[in-house]
């Protein structure tokens, strides 16, 4: 029997792509035997990463050579992620197997157009253009895949979120005084913008705390918090696993993502499902995801004063906070629940494999 083979990082790895894959696998993606996942990347040493990639390439080549692959579904982001998957895409082309190119990562356009020298850019575009179809997380990314990469069949496809979706009353009762960020501690994630905005918030609401959970270098974050006089009100728990992540989300008064680049952040979907009010910068699909807020939950990138004012406006109005949280729950239930996404995914697989 032929199978759809999906490629991407191990579900145990860190990052949004791994979270998407883990969610699909946990909710029956492979249950009927028609779909199979093969990890091409794991966290760890360079040797461990290389061994996993080579083992995956051997598995996929063996299946392709035996004619066992109906469709290769490849999750791709910028940089090393793209070139790692390039070998699999090239192998699929050799065996005339259709490829579904699934684009993640907010900087992929910049990666292709600006970071690659001409020869490598032509190679990358040739690999992308040979795909049977593509998924993108935002309308601008889909338009770019059509116009710049020459793909005719491109669809905006949502990331899935697993259940259960929290009861609004439970969510309201569990709310604390913490502003929460989940993601890598780096400039492009807006961590330093959020810290500066929090200093303004903390001056008005001294009991407020900020939790910056994620991997990355904590030293510059601590240094800025100390400089701003808010170090005692900032928690840096490091990278957190699923259980701790859920606990942090469940007690947050507000989830804030001040990123400079994103596609469709999984952390925002998790916050919606947990019944937490959200504030995020207007990047990628964020405005569409938070359209229920009538722009109350969306702010411009790097506008620290606006970010601080918006945080204060939401936190000081309980009715507003409850309304935003409720609308987020309704949105995630109607569009992003994993069972709905898997059904939609299977329909696309059948069309493309045919």
Question: How does this model look, in words?
Answer:
It is a single chain. The chain is α/β, with parallel strands linked by helices and 354 residues long. It folds into two domains: 3-160 and 337-353, Glycogen Phosphorylase B (Rossmann fold, 3-Layer(aba) Sandwich), CATH 3.40.50; 168-335, 3-Layer(aba) Sandwich (Rossmann fold), CATH 3.40.50. The protein is built from 15 helices and twelve strands. The strands form two sheets. It has a six-stranded parallel sheet with strand order 2-1-3-4-5-6, with helices on both faces. Helix 9 (219-228) links the parallel strand 8 (209-213) and strand 9. Helix 2 (46-65) packs parallel to helix 3, helix 8 (191-204) runs parallel beside helix 9 and helix 11 crosses helix 14. The longest helix is centred in the N-terminal third of the chain and has 20 residues, at 46-65. The two termini are 14 Å apart. The mean pLDDT is 91.
Shape descriptor: globular
Q: Any low-confidence stretches, pLDDT <50, length ≥5? A: none
- Specify the biggest β-sheet: 6 strands, parallel
> Can you give the mean pLDDT?
91
CATH superfamily of the largest domain: Glycogen Phosphorylase B
Range of strand content:
15-25%
User: How many beta-strand runs?
Assistant: 12
- Global structural class: alpha/beta
- Total discrete domains: 2
Q: State the name of the first-level CATH class of the largest domain.
A: Alpha Beta
Strand order of the largest sheet: 2-1-3-4-5-6
């Amino acid at each position: 029997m032929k199978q759809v083979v999906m490629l991407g990082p191990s579900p145990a790895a860190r990052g949004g792509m791994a979270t998407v894959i883990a969610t699909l696998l946990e909710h029956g993606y492979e249950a009927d035997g028609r779909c199979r996942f093969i990890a091409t990347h794991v966290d760890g040493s360079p040797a461990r990463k290389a061994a996993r990639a080579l083992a995956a390439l051997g598995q996929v080549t063996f299946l392709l050579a035996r004619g066992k692959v109906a469709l290769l579904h490849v999750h791709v982001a910028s940089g090393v992620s793209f070139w790692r998957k390039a070998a699999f895409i090239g192998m699929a082309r050799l065996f005339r197997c259709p490829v579904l190119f699934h684009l993640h990562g907010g900087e992929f356009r910049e990666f292709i157009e600006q970071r690659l020298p001409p020869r490598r850019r032509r190679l990358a575009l040739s690999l992308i253009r040979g795909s049977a179809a593509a998924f993108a997380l935002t309308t601008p990314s889909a338009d770019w895949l059509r116009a710049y990469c020459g793909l005719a069949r491109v669809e905006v496809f949502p990331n899935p979120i697993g259940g259960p979706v929290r009861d609004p009353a439970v969510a309201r009762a569990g709310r604390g005084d913490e502003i929460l960020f989940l993601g890598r501690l780096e400039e492009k994630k807006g961590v330093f913008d959020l810290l500066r905005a929090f200093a303004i918030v903390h001056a008005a609401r001294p009991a407020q705390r900020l939790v910056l959970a994620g991997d990355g270098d904590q030293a510059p974050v601590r240094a800025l918090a100390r400089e701003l006089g808010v170090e005692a009100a900032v928690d840096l728990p490091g990278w957190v696993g699923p259980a701790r992540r859920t606990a942090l989300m469940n007690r947050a008064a507000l989830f804030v993502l001040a990123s400079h680049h994103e596609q469709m952040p999984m952390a925002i979907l998790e916050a919606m499902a947990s019944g937490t009010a959200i504030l995020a910068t207007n990047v990628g699909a964020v405005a569409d995801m938070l359209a229920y807020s009538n722009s109350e939950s969306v702010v411009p990138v790097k506008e620290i004063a606006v970010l601080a004012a918006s945080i204060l406006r939401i936190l000081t109005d309980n009715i507003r906070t409850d309304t935003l949280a409720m609308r987020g729950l309704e949105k995630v239930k109607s569009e992003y629940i994993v069972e709905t996404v898997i059904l939609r995914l299977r329909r696309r697989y059948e069309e493309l494999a045919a």
